[in-house]
TrEMBL record:
This is Carboxypeptidase-like protein. It comes from Chitinophaga dinghuensis. It comes from the Bacteria.
Length: 598
């Protein structure tokens, strides 16, 4: 060990030389004598008789020999001997040195030192030192130094042999314009990027954000261990094969991975991964992943994933996932998910999901979901077994439970509940509620806050006392009615539902047309009847909130069921009025008269 330590100092010894027009053999003897060591070499390997001139001050033995021998020899040290050997072709040489700040003189750590053509790189250590191994088969090499917040610096290497190159770099002080941060510079900062990329690769991406290269192909085992080494993240390829995972600058062809693909910029054509695809730029083509696809810009084409898809920009094409997918801007085409499809911008096409669809802006097309559809403005169809939500509805809402919208210009259909602030169209449901309407409400209960609310008390040919509640709009309102007769023999009760329309003829006069179905039962008898009535009435309004009405009624009674056979048979309703009957059915002409308040 002591001998080796002594020999290793030969190449680093400094000296001044002034040799003019001497043979190479003589020059070597003078250098050896001045450095207190002895050269050893095969005589025919060196042109000993060649005349040389070299004048240097304060240079190391290595630097002097590199210049004297044109970098064609490699050096080995043994004790106090320096052995010269012809360098075999296709070998490597090392460039080493320190990187310092031009202004402060401080040595800079984590700077990237690389060769652009060979795509070989390394980092400076904590002391600012680097050592880069390059191939000498290239006719010329140039090292570049890049560091975040510093200006890029490049130096041409005049000879392809081991050498020391110290580099100073300057802080990047030019004022930068305000720019929008896009996905192209953010793939390393995502959760997956931090998980799957080493800190060195992420640091290199920051240092080399302005350098990219193109190559026909690359093969890697994991990011940083492949054809292009740590420079893989700066290289775009036509074909990329990643055994487990890969990290590239871009793809213009096909990329395949057993587990994951991470691409900083754009992907064109095909990207397939067993688990994950992460694209920092645009995805144009087909993207397939067993679990998750994540595109930090836009997607044009087809995106398929076993669990989830995520697009930060816009989508034009088809997006299908087993569970969840999201588009942060606009979606044109198809979204289909097992659970949730969501678009934060405009949807122009079809959204399908097993659970929920969300269009945070406008929907021009169709939403179909198992539980819930939600869109800001709907121009088309919302259909679900659960509920639909929208601010402005222009089209059709169909729901198994409820529809809710601010403004409806179209149709709401549900089995239970429809709600809107303003309706210019049709509501069909068990309960319909609106603040105001110029359309139609068809349901068992219709409530219009600024609409039609009437309470009528009347006497009819069926029973002498009736109460009816009418709500909805004048165009079409619903009627809930009940009545009774307490006269003996046989007290009678009726309960019914109907619809009606009021047509204004004069501020004090109007006419109504109503259809209703009522259940009629006379106590102490065995039967119930369904009575269907069509009525018309003339209304006189002596003052606001009060109307007197009267008019004819055409009724048809049909035996519904016999509840208690042991009781006497009920007489047919309307038997005392002009009409005709056949067995269990009777048709007759009756009357109504009453007052309406509100």
């Amino acid at each position: 060990m002591p001998a080796v330590g002594f020999a290793q100092q030969i190449l680093n010894r400094t000296m001044d030389v002034d040799i003019r027009n001497k043979s190479l053999a003589t020059a070597l003897q003078l250098i050896g004598k001045k450095g207190n060591f002895t050269f050893s070499y095969i005589s025919n390997s060196i042109p000993q008789d060649s005349l040389v001139t070299i004048i240097e001050k304060g240079k190391t033995v290595r630097q002097i020999l590199d210049k004297l021998l044109d970098g064609n020899y490699q050096y080995k040290e043994y004790n106090n001997y320096l052995i010269l050997q012809v360098k075999p072709p296709g070998q490597f040489f090392y460039v080493s040195g320190f990187v310092t700040d031009r202004e402060t003189g401080q040595r800079i750590s984590n700077a990237t030192v690389y060769e652009r053509h060979q795509l070989i790189s390394t980092f400076t250590n904590n002391e600012g030192y680097y050592r880069l191994r390059l191939r000498d088969k290239y006719p010329a090499a140039a090292i570049s130094v890049s560091k975040d917040l510093y200006a890029d610096t490049s130096l041409l290497l005049p000879i392809s042999n081991d050498q020391t190159v110290n580099v100073t770099i300057s802080p990047y002080t030019r004022m930068l314009p305000t720019v929008e941060i896009t996905g192209h510079s953010q793939v390393e900062k995502t959760w997956f990027g931090k998980l799957l990329l080493s800190s060195k690769l992420r640091q290199q991406s920051d240092n080399l954000r302005h350098f990219f290269a193109d190559k026909p192909y690359q093969v890697s085992l994991i990011p940083g261990l492949g054809t292009h080494g740590r420079m893989g993240g700066q290289v775009a390829n036509k074909f990329s094969l990643n055994v487990l995972g890969g990290y590239t600058a871009g793809v213009d062809g096909v990329e395949l991975a057993g587990a994951f693909n991470i691409v900083k910029n754009d992907v064109h054509n095909v990207q397939v991964a067993g688990l994950l695809n992460m694209t920092g730029g645009k995805m144009i083509g087909v993207q397939l992943a067993g679990l998750h696809n994540n595109v930090l810009d836009s997607m044009h084409g087809v995106q398929l994933a076993g669990i989830s898809n995520n697009i930060i920009g816009s989508q034009k094409g088809v997006q299908i996932s087993g569970a969840v997918q999201r588009v942060e801007k606009n979606m044109t085409g198809v979204q289909a998910a097992g659970l949730i499809s969501s678009t934060y911008g405009k949807v122009d096409g079809l959204q399908l999901s097993g659970a929920c669809n969300f269009a945070m802006d406008s929907l021009y097309g169709v939403q179909v979901a198992g539980i819930l559809n939600s869109a800001e403005n709907v121009h088309g169809l919302q259909a679900t077994a659960g509920g639909n939500l929208s601010a402005n509805m222009h089209g059709l809402q169909v729901a198994g439970i409820f529809n809710i919208a601010h403004n409806v210009e179209g149709t709401q259909v549900s089995t239970f509940f429809n709600r809107a602030r303003y309706v210019k169209g049709v509501q069909i449901g068990f309960v319909n509620v609106a603040d105001s309407t110029t359309g139609y409400m068809i349901g068992f209960i219709n409530i219009v806050k600024k609409g039609y609310h009437k309470l009528s008390v009347s006497s009819t040919d069926l029973v002498p006392f009736n109460v009816s509640w009418k709500s909805g709009s004048a165009k079409l309102y619903s009627i809930l009615s009940g009545g009774m007769s307490l006269e003996d023999p046989g007290r009678s009760f009726v309960l019914g539902y109907g619809i009606g329309r009021e047509m204004l003829m004069h501020p004090h006069y109007s006419v109504t047309a109503e259809l209703s179905a009522q259940t009629y039962h006379q106590s102490g008898t065995s039967d119930e009847f369904q009575v269907y009535r069509a009525s018309g009435a003339f209304l006189y309004k002596p003052r606001k909130g009060l109307a007197i009405f009267a008019g004819p009624v055409i009724s048809a009674a049909v035996l519904d069921k016999t509840t208690r056979p042991e009781l006497p048979v009920s007489p047919l309703p309307g038997k005392n009025y002009l009409g005709f009957g056949n067995g269990d059915t009777r048709l007759w002409l009756g009357w109504q008269i009453g007052v309406t308040i509100f």
